[in-house]
Amino acid sequence: MGQPNGVAERRRPGPSPDATRTAILDAAESLYAERGIHGVSLREIAEAAGQRNNAAVHYHFGGRDPLVQALFERRFLELDRRRAAMLADLEA
To answer: pTM (2 decimals)?
Structure first.
C-alpha cells in the first residue's frame, strides 16, 4: 500500500561517488597485494568495498584496466612528490 497522505517514501542517501570510488580503490589495492591482479575478480573487489551492486567497479572505473590505472595514479602522485622533495634536498 502507498504512504499515508500521499507522502513519498524517503530514501536514505548512499555514500558519495567519491567515497565509493575510494572504497573500491582501497579494496582493490589490498586484494591485489594479497593475490595479484589476475587472482582477484571485480566481483570480489566490489564485495570487499561493501558494494551490493556487482557492477560497481565497471560503473566507477570502466573495468579492470582503468581500475589498475587509477591505483597507479593514486600512488604515483605521492611517490612523485617524495622524489621531487629528495631531489630538492640533494640540490640544496
So the answer is: 0.74
3-state secondary structure of 51: coil
Q: Using N-to-C axis directions, what is the helix angle for 64-91 and 17-35, rounded to 10°?
A: 90
Measuring CA to CA, which residue among 27, 51, 53 is closest to residue 40?
Answer: 27
d(CA 68, CA 25): 9
**CB of 60 closer than 8 Å to CB of 21:** yes
The answer on pLDDT for 14 being more than 90 is: no
Residue 38 contacts residue 44 (beta carbons within 8 Å): no
Residue with cell 589490498: 30
65 grid coordinates: 584496466
Confidence of residue 15 (pLDDT cuts 50, 70, 90): confident
Q: Is 50 left (phi over 0), alpha (psi -120 to 50) or beta?
A: left
